[in-house]
Amino acid sequence: MELIGTSHQFLTDVLRKDYRPEIFEMIEAAWPRVPNPSIAWLEPRITGLLRLALISEQESRYLTDPPFHISEEVKKRDPKTGKEYERTDIEIHLRHHYIKGQKPYFVFESKRLNIPYGDRVKSNADEYVGDGGMGCLSEGRYESVLSFSGMIGYLMNGEMASAKQAIENLLRQNVDKLHLKPTSEIQASQFVPKNKKLGETYHQREGMSFIIFHIFLPVSRQR
Question: How many folded domains does the chain comprise?
Answer without folding.
Answer: 1
